[in-house]
Write a structure and sequence with these properties.
Helix content of chain B: 40-55%
Number of helices of chain B: 17
CATH superfamily of the largest domain in chain A: ATPase, nucleotide binding domain
Helix content of chain A: 55-70%
CATH class of the largest domain in chain A: Alpha Beta
Radius of gyration of chain A: 23 Å
Distance between the termini of chain A: 15 Å
CATH class of the largest domain in chain B: Alpha Beta
Strand order of the largest sheet of chain A: 7-6-5-8-9
Distance between the termini of chain B: 46 Å
Largest sheet of chain A: 5 strands, mixed
Radius of gyration of chain B: 21 Å
Oligomer: heterotetramer
Largest sheet of chain B: 4 strands, parallel
Strand content of chain B: 5-15%
CATH architecture of the largest domain in chain A: 2-Layer Sandwich
Number of strands of chain A: 9
Shape of chain B: globular
CATH architecture of the largest domain in chain B: 3-Layer(aba) Sandwich
Strand order of the largest sheet of chain B: 2-1-3-4
CATH topology of the largest domain in chain B: Rossmann fold
Strand content of chain A: 5-15%
Number of helices of chain A: 14
Shape of chain A: globular
Bound molecules: adenosine-5'-diphosphate, iron/sulfur cluster
Order of helices and strands of chain B: HEHEHHHEHEHHHHHEHEHHEHHEH
Order of helices and strands of chain A: EEEHHHHHHHEHEEEHHHHEHEH
């Protein structure tokens, strides 16, 4: 089987997609972008490969048994355990690095014991989270999971220990995150199977039976294309790098063939792209190097309010009206936010105003690229924000009439899919 | 690699050197100096009074190419000129504030006459108001050229221009020159201008060949040098275009592309371009296209000093009327629908694959409305349009990575289109 | 003029810090105490009120003992004030108080940078300030130091250790995070990163300084003036731009606005007395 | 048909000052131009003609039974969505909101649009309107920069006659001498009233804020001239009895805001920061002609032409060969006993910004204090303006 790989190295997240020669998606992988782009790309690719093997495994199992229903839950449980095991391995490296840091510390021994304790609990906590299916694989990565649990554990500790242990983490996470940890699919899967509840042991055995066939399949891509913000830094040759604009357009076209306009709001840039019926770009606009109007704007606001980006949207949805935000600059908007709150304005309203502001800026860009046409596809990490989606829908309706608006839960993969499809198109 | 030089190029270089020599000697020879602008310039008239023209825009352009503009612009901004305004003005004023050392490192003489013939741009007027304060001794002649707002030339506008020439411009010339106009010289100039114009149009229209023997933008800006500035109406100018036309015909016969600084060139994409080029990074800018095998087969910028594509030629029959018509017809004095028509004509005549718009931050005259033009062309012709933003001479507004990013996508758009058309995937 | 002395109070409400200065007015004016407190997401009005009360108590003063309470910065937030002076007037005066030889003041605040030129009598003759973009301001520096895990006090000394400053372009105060992470990942030593950032901030400030004609010597005020790395970077950028200006950080730079306000308050108080007499 | 704005036209004599300001504010904020559409619907053959800054000979429109409506952008009252699609970031803001209004159908009842020759942006905007409104009259109006009546005058007369003919074709009217004389008389009266108002404001700046003054003028860009005359007259009646104390503020002339208009918030901020604006060029078109135009002649078009050539005020859009603008500005400062000049121009406005160095130098020669800043019509943050204007006031108050 020939497979093709597309990689989208975004400023926040790195995505990979593997497609078959017929263009169907075999596997998706995602991770957070980190300072070493190669590592980010590699992990995303590996993740996509695992994802692909799991689908193969599932297909075979289902084919054999004939029923799909019961297997789905089982595979979810299995994949969760699989991901947990990856977490555990990475946790090991991080723990080692952290302890290494402590060796030079004056009261190192004492701290190490405290740390050991904490790490154990972090692991337990995260295991439970994985096993109960409470981890969203497309937006919570090792770094987020670990730091969430770790910080929670540190919370009650006294000041001095707290400071040392946060420092230890801060200094260790970057180097560790930038190491590639090789995983063996077979070993990990077998281990995951063994972690299944006893009641499922039988089914586990059925799955294990197919493992050898599945790992025998080669997933080495016949061709690959990299795109995204960091594409120039990938060690790829020129013909393996494509502009993110074209990839996003083609990806959107593959998900929604009727798409004529794509709006992508990512972490560091916003793109408005017009596409023709073949998925070819006819025009586009991209914003400049200014955080006003892209995902980081919201991220910054979330920091100002000490909440997570995920909470912003729901909070803004609860607003009665949108406070008028005068500043364009992200930093000034942050100051304005504080002013409004001090004057007694409700935080929901101010947030709504900030959300509206970002959408208005995106729409100005959209207009410059030629406006929204039917069908209109909205993608990028910010498309996960419900309040943004609301304003995008409203503004589309008032300015461009009743268009079909596509927002796919998977649409974060559009750039990667487009990149993969490029390989197919040029065969 | 050594740069290939053709006879026409050598000739042009010599013409310029002679001109600047004459300028630097003007204080000795007593020849009078007239500052004026390229669009709607009255070179024939200036020659008929045996004066020497100086074009502030050309000075700015040259300063940009010689990497002096950053300094000059800074000088002007220090003197109170806003960051927001046209950089040509600032570059020129900065140069004057620093001693008026021209492109050949010789000092330029101050003007005896400021001929404000302002065609197609209001900034020209402001520019001269500022120059007037810098050169309080110069005589000033104002020639107002109405806009072709409705897509045609009103007879009243021609009358108006003629009257201004008769009652304002020529008397000022006569005052400065200290003598009457030489009608015979004027007539001769007008006739020679027409000859050169015929040849220039031949050169431009040669871009219809495949491969195109010329680059109508990066080469074009050199081709228009003599005719748009100090030399139109001179014998040397006619000879330059005869030489150039000969060279172009040779390349057509040999099926050769344009001469480039990097030698041979294989044509892959044929493009039309709207807007002036960037001067501070001219070579860099050219390379961005050259690397992709793109040749420009049509450009609007090379029409700022006169549009000859629709048949207008200078004529000795009624010289003032002819000059008036010339002024009215320059590219930026035409309304947006007319500008779109011209672009469409280039695209059709030369069978172009795409349009590039280089939107210049400085130049509202060109830039305001380009996005609407872009949309109209896309609709009319269904070809990809690449939109980039640079500046004429302000290096702060030339962002290589930004342009490259946009152009990469644009060329990939073109490539995809070619590939798909080639594979007949496009179902129509 | 009376040769009596009396107390005045200057309150400078910034976007991240609140500064108070208690001054004994009367030749020579004497700065009794300055306070500099970070707002930290609290309501500034409350912080101001508390700080004023504490300050008065410490010096055993009643509110009525203060002849003139002058606000500057975001003065609207100060309820118990007698008059308001604008930041450029007060920063100039505050710096001039300690350094009467200066001919210009550059105020480096949290959101804005200001350039003020003075004549020999502390009269403001011209000025300009930044507006729409926070790149190159104190908040920018705060963000960068946070991304690097440093305190503001550490930043300056580290910058001075740099041998090979990183090259940065004009970067956004928010997106700089990515650039900084990139630099860290390329193994660029922290001092070089900081120095690169300092140079980029300095470049912006120098560009602002070009906007009006100023003469030497130049005193730096505002919170960022406490950053010796930035001062050094400014000297380098000035040299590069061929601007022969001597710059140095003013005494108590962060409180220059508050001190200036207190002094101007005293001046107005005398004027008003004269007018009443 | 019940009309929303008819009342404001009939009830003038018992209007209170507050109500008068309310009316102006309502007109200012009404971006669907209800006043104009109401007026048009009252009689057949009425037409609405939108015009861009700064000056058009409204007398001609009035004589043809048309309502001239000034299109001065939309400030911050509408978000610009599609307008940005037409203008790059380095072009001033005004054309964006104008095109936005065109695209969101606010201008659908307009019958014609006039684009006076003042700069390349407005000029090219006329082209965009030609492409957008293929079925409406879109006219660019060239003003002569030659001021000889035999040269520029002949040309301008031709332009005006052509304009009158093209407009007249819209409602089948032609320009009559009597009607035009009558219109000229009404606009003479209007300018005289506005002059009185401006003098009042200059003498008692505390009794009428610059922002209210501005709104009264802005109303003149929408109201019929008859209405506006009565309206301003009424306000002039009421103003002297306003009770207010003059504050300790400096007096400034604002220069450079002739086209794209500063936001109201900016005008207020400048005054709150201690600067009474005693004269300005905000609504320059209304005061374009200095003095009266003869209104009892055989040749009223000729009278308009002469007024343009000889009695125009100064502005960045007109060549000032024989009439240097720096001298006019100095005169303005003297006449209004101003302490200084605030150069306050739209960002990216070539005409205003290229004049600034000339004007600044002239002010320095005369030891007139000045500061300068730039704005755009939808500016929402006035922090910088406040500080700059405040420091300016501090400077003059503490030392001068
Ligand atoms: N769960 C979420 N809820 C709301 N916003 C989110 C969520 N996840 C990510 N985002 C937003 O999406 C942005 C990242 O978008 P992404 O498309 O991944 O960017 P890039 O392609 O540049 O990496 C973040 O800055 C954040 O604002
Ligand atoms: N110790 C310090 N060293 C260096 N910089 C500092 C220090 N303390 C504060 N700063 C900088 O000063 C800025 C605050 O300056 P300040 O003049 O108080 O601003 P504002 O008056 O606008 O609030 C902060 O954003 C920070 O960058
Ligand atoms: S305006 Fe604000 S968000 Fe934009 S580049 Fe500047 S600092 Fe960044
Ligand atoms: S605006 Fe354009 S046409 Fe006008 S002077 Fe500047 S560069 Fe030349
Ligand atoms: S604001 Fe200035 S540049 Fe803009 S349209 Fe008006 S005159 Fe032209």
């Amino acid at each position: 089987m020939s497979v093709f790989l597309g990689i989208d190295l975004g400023s926040t997240t790195s995505k990979a997609i593997i497609v078959s020669e017929k263009g169907s998606i075999l596997g998706r992988g995602i991770t957070n972008t980190r300072s070493d782009y190669n590592v980010a790309a590699d992990i995303a690719r590996m993740d996509a490969e695992f994802n692909a093997r799991f689908s193969m495994l599932r297909n075979r199992v289902i084919q054999e048994s004939g029923t799909a229903e019961s297997w789905n839950d089982l595979f979810v449980a299995l994949e969760n355990r699989f991901h947990y095991l990856q977490f555990e391995r990475r946790c090991d490296s991080l723990s080692a690095a952290m302890k290494e840091q402590l060796t030079h510390s004056r009261n190192g021994e004492e701290l190490r014991t405290a740390l050991d304790d904490i790490l154990l609990r972090v692991r337990d906590l995260t295991r439970a989270k994985f096993f109960e299916g409470r981890v969203s694989s497309s937006s919570e990565f090792f770094r987020d999971l670990f730091s969430a649990a770790y910080m929670k554990e540190l919370d009650g500790l006294d000041r001095a220990i707290f400071d040392t242990l946060t420092g230890v983490y801060d200094r260790s996470i970057n180097p560790v995150e930038n190491q590639v940890v090789e995983f063996d699919f077979k070993t990990l899967t077998e281990e995951a199977i063994s972690l299944l509840p006893n009641t499922l042991a039988n089914s586990g055995a059925k799955i294990a039976k197919h493992l050898p066939e599945v790992i025998a399949e080669s997933l080495k891509p016949e061709d690959y294309v990299g795109t995204g913000y960091g594409r120039q830094l990938l060690p790829f040759e020129k013909q393996h790098i494509k502009s993110e604009i074209l990839c996003h357009a083609l990806g959107a076209h593959c998900y929604f063939p009727m798409t004529r306009t794509v709006l992508d709001i990512g972490g560091q840039d916003t793109k408005a792209i017009q596409v023709d019926e073949h998925g070819l770009v006819t025009s586009f606009q991209m914003n400049d190097r200014c955080a006003a109007g892209c995902g980081r704007y919201l991220g910054y606001i979330a920091d100002e309010m000490s909440i997570s980006v995920g909470e912003l949207g729901p909070m803004a949805m609860a607003a009665e009206r949108e406070t008028n935000i005068c500043s364009t600059c992200t930093v000034f908007a942050g100051a304005e936010l504080r002013e409004h709150l001090n004057l007694g304005e409700k935080k929901e309203n101010v947030l709504a105003g900030l959300h509206l502001a970002i959408v208005q800026r995106a729409f100005a860009l959209l207009a410059r690229s030629g406006g929204a046409r039917n069908e209109f596809t909205f993608t990028g990490g910010v498309a996960r924000n419900k309040a943004v989606v609301k304003y995008v829908s409203n503004m589309t309706r008032t300015n461009y009439g009743d268009l079909t608006i596509n927002i796919h839960p998977d649409s974060i993969f559009m750039g990667a899919l487009g990149a993969a499809m490029f390989c197919l198109r040029r065969r | 690699m050594s740069v290939q030089k053709e006879n026409s190029m050598v000739k042009q270089k010599q013409m310029l050197a002679d001109h600047f020599m004459a300028l630097s000697e003007a204080p000795m020879t007593g020849r009078k100096v007239c500052y004026t602008f390229v669009p709607g310039n009255l070179t024939e008239l200036i020659t008929a009074f045996d004066m020497l023209p100086v074009y502030p825009e050309i000075n700015s352009l040259q300063s940009g190419m010689r990497q002096r503009s950053r300094d000059f612009i800074r000088e002007a901004e220090d003197a109170g000129y806003s960051e927001d305004v046209c950089s040509y003005v600032k570059c020129d004023i900065g140069m004057m504030l620093q001693g008026n050392i021209g492109p050949t490192d010789q000092q330029l003489p101050p003007p005896d006459l400021l001929l404000l013939s302002y065609t197609g741009c209001f900034v020209f007027m402001k520019w001269f108001e500022n120059l007037r304060h810098l050169y309080p001794k110069a005589e000033i002649a104002m020639l107002h050229i109405p806009y072709q707002a409705d897509g045609k030339v009103e007879p009243s506008a021609i009358e108006y221009i003629k009257e201004q020439l008769r009652t304002e411009v020529i008397p000022k010339f006569e005052k400065v020159a200290g003598r009457k106009i030489d009608d015979a010289v004027l007539a001769q100039c007008m006739n020679r201008s027409a000859m050169a114009e015929d040849l220039l149009i031949n050169v431009f229209e040669s871009a219809r060949h495949r491969p195109s023997p010329i680059d109508a933008y990066f080469g074009g800006v050199y081709y228009i040098g003599p005719i748009f500035t100090s030399f139109r109406g001179s014998q040397a100018c006619v000879e330059y275009y005869e030489e150039l036309w000969k060279e172009v015909q040779e390349r057509v016969a040999l099926k050769l592309g344009p001469i480039t600084p990097d030698g041979t060139f294989t044509e892959k994409y044929r493009l039309v371009v709207e807007g002036p080029p960037n001067w501070t990074n001219f070579r860099d800018f050219w390379k961005l296209f050259y690397e992709h095998g793109a040749v420009f087969v049509g450009s609007t910028y090379t029409r700022v000093g006169g549009v000859y594509d629709y048949g207008f030629r200078h004529s000795a029959e009624d010289p003032l009327k002819s000059l008036a018509e010339y002024c009215m017809g320059c590219y930026t004095n035409r309304n947006l629908p007319q500008r779109i028509d011209l672009i469409e004509k280039f695209i059709k005549d030369c069978d172009a694959d795409g349009l590039v718009i280089n939107s210049i931050k400085s130049c509202n005259s060109f830039s305001a409305g380009q996005l609407a033009m872009m949309r109209d062309i896309e609709e009319r012709r269904g070809i990809p349009v690449g939109f980039i933003e640079t500046d004429l001479v302000d290096p702060r507004y030339y962002s290589y990575s930004n342009i490259k990013n946009r152009l990469d996508s644009f060329f990939q758009m073109l490539e995809q289109r070619k590939e798909l058309v080639g594979k007949a995937v496009l179902v129509s | 003029m009376t040769n009596e002395t009396f107390h005045t109070l200057g309150i400078d409400v910034g976007s991240s810090y609140i500064k108070l200065a208690l001054v004994r007015y009367g030749e020579p004016h004497q700065v009794i105490e300055v306070i500099n407190e970070k707002i930290r997401k609290r309501n500034p009005t409350h912080v101001i009120d508390r700080l004023v009360d504490e300050l008065l108590e410490r010096h055993r003063l009643r509110y009525e003992d203060i002849m003139y309470v002058a606000s500057t910065g975001e003065g609207e937030l100060v309820s118990r004030k007698r008059g308001h002076f604008y930041s450029m007037t007060t920063h100039a005066r505050g710096a001039w108080h300690f350094h009467p030889q200066i001919r210009a003041v550059v105020d480096l605040g949290a959101l804005f940078n200001r350039v003020i030129s003075l004549d020999s009598g502390a009269r403001v003759s011209n000025y300009t300030m930044t507006g729409q973009c926070a790149s190159g301001t104190g908040q920018f520096l705060e963000n960068i130091s946070r991304y690097l895990g440093l305190t503001l006090e550490e930043v300056g000394p580290l910058s001075l250790q740099s041998k090979n400053p990183a090259v940065t372009s004009g970067i956004c105060a928010v997106l700089a995070e990515t650039d900084v992470i990139n630099m860290v990942s390329q193994g660029i030593p922290t001092p070089d990163i900081i120095k690169g950032i300092h140079l980029s901030i300095a470049r912006r400030i120098v560009r602002l300084m070009r906007k009006i004609k100023i003469e030497s010597p130049v005193a730096l005020t505002g919170g960022m003036a406490q950053d010796i790395g930035l001062t050094e970077a400014m000297r380098e950028m000035l040299a590069e731009a061929d601007m022969k200006l001597e710059v140095f950080a003013a005494t108590q730079p962060e409180a220059a606005g508050a001190i200036g306000a207190a002094i101007w308050g005293g001046y107005r108080h005398c004027k008003l007395l004269e007018a009443a007499a | 048909m019940p009309s929303r704005f008819a009342e404001s036209r009939s009830r003038i004599s018992d209007l209170t000052l507050d109500e008068a300001f309310q009316t102006a504010k309502k007109l200012f904020e009404d971006l669907s131009f209800g006043y104009a559409t109401d007026w048009k619907s009252e009689q057949q053959n009425r037409r609405i003609v939108g015009f861009l800054p700064i000056y058009v000979p409204r007398e001609i429109l009035h004589a043809l039974d048309m309502l001239p409506v000034g299109l001065f952008g939309a400030g911050d009252k509408i978000p610009v969505v599609r307008g940005d699609a037409y203008f790059q970031s380095y072009i001033c803001h005004l054309p964006r909101t104008v095109i936005e209004m065109a695209l969101n159908d606010s201008l659908k009842d307009f019958d014609a649009f006039l684009f006076p020759a003042i700069c390349d942006v407005i000029r090219n905007l006329s082209g965009i309107f030609q492409l957008t409104y293929k079925d409406k009259l879109v006219r660019f109006l060239d003003f002569p920069q030659n001021f000889q009546s035999a040269v520029g005058g002949v040309f301008y007369r031709h332009e005006l006659e052509r304009l009158a003919a093209d407009l007249g074709a819209l409602n089948g009217k032609s320009l009559s001498t009597d009607a035009l004389n009558h219109s000229i008389g009404l606009y003479n009266q209007n300018r005289a009233l506005l002059k009185d108002l401006s003098n009042f404001r200059s003498s008692y700046p505390h009794k009428l804020s610059a922002a209210d003054h501005y709104l009264i003028l802005r109303a003149g860009q929408v109201m019929t001239v008859e209405h506006h005359n009565a309206y301003v007259e009424r306000i002039l009646e009421l103003l002297p009895s306003v009770e207010a104390i003059e504050a300790d503020k400096i007096r400034v002339v604002v220069s450079g805001s002739f086209c794209e208009q500063p936001p109201l918030g900016l005008i207020r901020t400048v005054e709150n920061a201690g600067c009474y604006i005693v004269d300005d060029d905000f609504q320059l078109g209304l005061k374009w002609t200095e003095g009266d135009i003869p209104d009892k002649t055989e040749d009223p078009v000729g009278a308009l032409v002469n007024a343009y050539l000889n009695n125009s005020t100064f502005s960045s859009a007109v060549y000032d060969g024989d009439n240097p603008k720096e001298i006019s500005l100095e005169r303005q400062v003297r006449e209004h006993r101003a302490d200084g000049v605030i150069f306050c121009a739209p960002s990216f406005c070539d005409p205003a910004l290229l004049d600034r160095p000339i004007l600044e130098k002239a002010m320095e020669r005369k030891h007139i204090r000045h500061i300068g800043f730039q704005y755009h019509e939808n500016l929402g943050q006035f922090h910088v303006v406040k500080e700059q204007a405040g420091t300016f006031a501090d400077m003059i108050k503490l030392w001068d």
